[in-house]
Amino acid sequence: MQPRCHSFPENAARALDDVDLQSALGRTTAGFPKKRLEGIATLPEFELLRDQATRIREHVLDHLDWYLERFADRVQAQGGTVHWCADADEARAAVLRICREADARTVTKGKSMIGEEIAINDHLEAHGITPVETDLGEYIIQLRGEAPSHIVAPALHVSRPQVSAAFREHHADRDPGRPLETPRELLGEAREVLRDRFLAADVGITGANMLIAETGTSVIVTNEGNGDLTQTLPRVHVVLASIEKVVPTLEDTSTLLRVLARSITGQEQTAYTTFSTGPRRPEDPDGPDAYHVVLLDNGRSRLLGGPARSILRCIRCGACLGHCPVYAQVGGHAYGWVYSGPMGAALTPGLLGLPEAWHLPQASTLCGRCEAVCPVRIPIPEVLRHWRTESWRQGRPGGAQRLALKGWAWLARRPRAYRLVTRLAARALRRAAGAGGALRRLPGLGGWTATRDLPAPEGRTFLDQWRERNR
Amino acid sequence: MNADAPHVGLFVTCLVDLFRPTVGFAAVRLLERAGCRVTVPDAQTCCGQPAASQGAAEEARAVARQVIETFDRFDYVVLPSGSCAATLRCHYPELLADDPAWAERARHLAGRSHELLSFLTDIMHLTDINTVYDGKIAYHDSCSGMRELGIHAQPRQLLGLVDGLREVPVADAEACCGFGGAFCVKYPGVAARMAEAKCRGIAQSGAELLLGGDLGCLLNLAGTLGRQGAATEVRHVAELLADLTDIPPIGRG
Predict the structure, then answer these.
(1) Which residue of A has its CA nearest to B199?
(2) What is the ipTM of this complex?
(3) Rounded mean pLDDT of A105-115?
(4) What contacts 24+ positions apart, CB below 8 Å, involve B123-127?
(5) Is residue B235 exposed (0-12), middle (13-18) or buried (19+ Cβ within 10 Å)?
(6) Pair A454, A439: CB distance under 8 Å
(7) This model's pTM is above 0.95
(8) Comparing C-alpha atoms, which of A16, A3, A55 is closest to residue A298?
(9) Over 80: is that where the pLDDT of A200 sits?
């Protein structure tokens, strides 16, 4: 997927004008804070669990190399294969190689953000292999030729009539007169179509919410059970995961699972939590013949020693997206790449670089609600501030914004000149506002006055009045 | 005035200085009532938050050093704004951490800098509020004050002493109003929608008066409510507590 983070302002403007998107966002985003509160209300030790989850994730980052090697050793000891990939190219090549060795024509896919990050579907299609998304949301956006707009609810931006239209267009062999409006009808049709695909698939690709070092296990959480069919029916199971997904033990996994779903949907647990440990053993009733883990770095090890390191704690629960006032207005696509919302704004500059992604850390009020709900207490505003500092050093923002800030900073260090300017400004704005007490238009501040008045100053600055009274 | 009275340097903040001097006078009145000796240093300008938030580290450091020099000599520095107080308390020490000549001074100032309402309650234990307001108010908890400084109970503690005042809840009260300093100028379209969403909740709350502790947010909210034609009036909470409500509400005259 070609990143379009650099055009965030245009993306956002389009999003604000998109009536369908706005109605979808209005329907969905308001619900997350309430669901989270209901979910954590049933768990008095939730805050302690957050502390514990934070410690686990920090500990992993402290010893990442050690846990990764342990994980890889366990996978190999159980007959699986680990593919270490430095970047997206290597990961794509590894997956393609596996698919070719399996002589694959159809590949089913569970939901995977790493799959999005390396754009695996495009790569497979370009090489004659048909990837089929099996998560309902991912399936819908695959039909629509879109990227996910939310890391947990990928089709959050799509309305029910739009889903219906996509199904009618792409399931052309079905009765055109069939009813296809209710969630049950839509889901039923998706299940029927996907059932054949599950059975036809040669390779199943899933993501991983966690990789357990002590057992060599990959874990996925889903609410649809599609991941289980994706990874147990085909001959080959490929796990796509980034390196920071590793956790030390099963016990740690359970701690993280207790805060993961609660933080966004309020669920105690997702409907399905599936552990995969190597290929099918002789005594297993089912499972794949081969088990591969494609481990992706793609810039993460670079972040490990720097000020943005804490974003690698992220467990992709989506709580920050669900509580972000900016995300609630513009949705995920405006962020221009795979990861959106606060965690996307904190992570993407580290993966794509600031020349592409510099807008994302700017497009935040630093309100801090993301940090307040993050189950692993990532100080997201602090990470955004770090990227802003780097960005300023590199000359962004430039132009009028940069000049204005530098001019203001010059003035702020010269109290006498500052006093003169504020005295004149207070008077001029007061006069311009007249008796109404507010300005409806102000040249140079059109962004402000387009949608709100500018309350007028009282007329004389505090410091002028104070000096006069205390002379 | 008692010579042992804590000596407070009042940093009125750039927005109060320019837009709403009454908040400065209200702060002086409340601080004096709480038993403080108040000085307003003449050399004050702005706390440097615009530069600090933008990542303009050199510019922010230069302003921070000037503020430290200006306010070093007081027992306390008090600001009628959560986000400006957070800049002194939370961000100066970070900005100057690697500067041996200034790191300690920054930490020292940070420890003595307070947002007005939390200072009045937590440090001065002020209970002497003799104001009457017979009506329903909504309170906007500004993000910096609430999340960086933990200010939530303090304004309500003081408003609880106002006769007749009733606080009504606002939908999604913890959502940001979309001001965000330069954010509302850099991304005006997004900021406008955030403000509109916030103001819908405020208008629906049935409050006659919206109070808050940060003038940036209040200018944003008053300007948006005004444009929407909402009847809700907007004031800085210090104006009401100090009984300086002779001037019209923000943006109304």
Answers:
(1) A452
(2) 0.97
(3) 97
(4) B123/B76, B124/B6, B124/B31, B124/B34, B124/B35, B124/B36, B125/B34, B126/B30, B126/B33, B126/B34, B126/B158, B127/B161
(5) buried
(6) yes
(7) yes
(8) A3
(9) yes
Task: Tokens 């505003």: give the residue.
Answer: A381
Tokens read off for B251 = 């943006």
Tell me the longest C-alpha to C-alpha distance in chain A: 94
pLDDT of residue B1: 58
Smallest Cβ distance to A450: which of B50, B188, B219?
A: B188
How do residues A48-76 score in pLDDT, each as one tens digit?
Answer: 999 999 999 999 999 999 999 999 999 99
Give the gap in angstroms from C-alpha B130 to the nearest C-alpha of chain A: 24
CB atoms within 10 A of CB A160: 13
Instruction: Give the pLDDT mean for A433-447.
Output: 87
Residue B178: which of A365, A393, A426 has the nearest Cβ?
A: A365
Shortest distance between the Cα of A304 and any Cα of chain B, in A, equals 20
Q: What's the N-to-C CA distance of chain B in angstroms?
A: 36
| Residues in chain B closer than 8 A to A368 (CB atoms) | 143-144, 147-148
Residue B34 token pair: 């709480």
In whole angstroms, give the CA distance from residue B219 to residue A456.
Answer: 9
Contact A329, A25 (CB under 8 A): yes
Phi, psi of A377 (to 5 degrees): 50, 45
**What type of residue is A230?**
T
C-alpha to C-alpha distance for A50 and A434, rounded to whole angstroms: 54
Q: What is the pLDDT of residue A444?
A: 80
Beta carbons of A307 and A254 less than 8 angstroms apart = no
